[in-house]
Amino acid sequence: MSSRAENLGDEAVSYRVAAEWNKKHPRFDTSVVVVVRAGSVVMIVKGQVMGAGPQAERDVRLSAHALVEAQLGKLARTS
Fold it and tell me: What SS3 state is found at 41?
């Protein structure tokens, strides 16, 4: 399984969005987004980070990458 977005498809980017949603009790709502282009197909996968710390974000990112790789495999078989 790829751990970096640029190893997926023809073009790819992976990024994190963190938004503070409660000023009184600061807590960040973090999402991981992976966008991949393979030929004429564009895939967007968004995962919500539910745990705390870098390991939780890493797990979501790896799961998103695995989902994209699985879809790329299906795309290759049907082309």
Answer: strand
Q: What is the pTM of this model?
A: 0.75
How many CB atoms sit inside 10 A of residue 5's CB?
A: 20
Q: Quick one: which of 32, 34, 44, 30 has its CA closest to 13?
A: 34
User: Residues 10-54: pLDDT tens digits?
Assistant: 999 888 888 877 677 666 778 899 999 998 989 999 999 887 778
Radius of gyration of the chain measured on its C-alpha atoms? 14
Q: Which pair of tokens denotes residue 23? A: 């000023």
The CA-atom distances, in angstroms, between 51 and each of 9, 25, 34, 63, 66 are: 29, 17, 19, 14, 19
Question: Smallest Cα–Cα separation from 15: which of 46, 59, 37, 50?
Answer: 46
